[in-house]
């Protein structure tokens, strides 16, 4: 397995920007790959995979290197350590890799393994929060959150069906397996976005856990449905398909630019019943009082259930950020529940694994004044080590008629 200095340099540049300049890993990798169009698919995959690899094990590798990286040369050394531990037994005799010895690094690693926070490469505060929140499940959960995430598709029933998508992708060399219903597992990493099936809106890339949110809302064709934290609309698109394009789907978010992206995706998906509206003031919510049969609250959260996809969140989160997000979630639950008609339902969902953001939030809401007309109908949490997909939480509540 050969690699080139230019690849390592691109990874080091991405890491510098992610850790020193606060760039998001996915956007930074996309930027680096776009900057040099001559790169082939293997080259691109190498850069993406190993940038994520170092982001994921930043703390562990810094420990093995003896210090946190500051210069680009330091980042080269971290990348060298990562490669030595990931199947590249010998490194090229480049100056930046001088003194990196596989046997020595493996010996240090054996000692580091006794410390969970170091081994799993997470901040100490996060290890304490995880243990306090998940108890005996935490060790397996954080271990699973460091693995590579599976790639899952959701077939768009407005345009296609699982058999047609499977055949169409096979014609382009992409093999998928059925998970259940409209969910297909991609067995080999390939560029799905370049396929004809994707360009024609036959599927969306969406984790299996996240695909559980829209069906939990029990929408029917003809309903008025509000997706109140719609973002770029992964779940709005699913709702539109379940509504068979009939009725009214209103997608809200505080960020108008995310809704613009949703509009583009909706066109590709053949969605005809969706309207977007940025939340520019509290009046937007007030005017919608008791207007909806169904409301989806896919609230902002710590994102701890999707660390496999966004490993840089480990380094960007803090106890303060989690406290802030928990307060926002309760405000959204109590404020946005007003949009549901008597007899209607709402789903509260997060991509977090912390009961504090999940079960406890729903319990606190039900015990509050705002929650007095509500009953819990269903709740389910998904853990990566147990269920195989992203950490996720979904609950459905119904409002007294
Ligand atoms: C978990 S993301 C939503 C993901 C989206 N539902 C999807 O499936 O692709 C949460 C969204 O809530 C939005 N948000 C944050 N605070 C909000 C608020 N007070 N009201 C409405 N949306 C909010 C964020 O901009 C973000 O897009």
Automatic annotation (TrEMBL):
GO MF, one annotated term: RNA methyltransferase activity
EC number(s) recorded for this UniProt protein: 2.1.1.176
Occurrences of domain SAM-dependent MTase RsmB/NOP-type (ranges): 141-400
Keywords: Methyltransferase, RNA-binding, S-adenosyl-L-methionine, Transferase
Residues bound to S-adenosyl-L-methionine: 253, 298
S-adenosyl-L-methionine as UniProt keyword: yes
Active site (catalytic residues): 351
Swiss-Prot/TrEMBL GO biological process terms: RNA methylation
First-level EC class: transferase
Family membership: Belongs to the class I-like SAM-binding methyltransferase superfamily. RsmB/NOP family.
Name by which UniProt lists this protein: 16S rRNA (Cytosine967-C5)-methyltransferase
Source organism of the structure: Neolewinella aquimaris
Organism phylogeny: Bacteria, Pseudomonadati, Bacteroidota, Saprospiria, Saprospirales
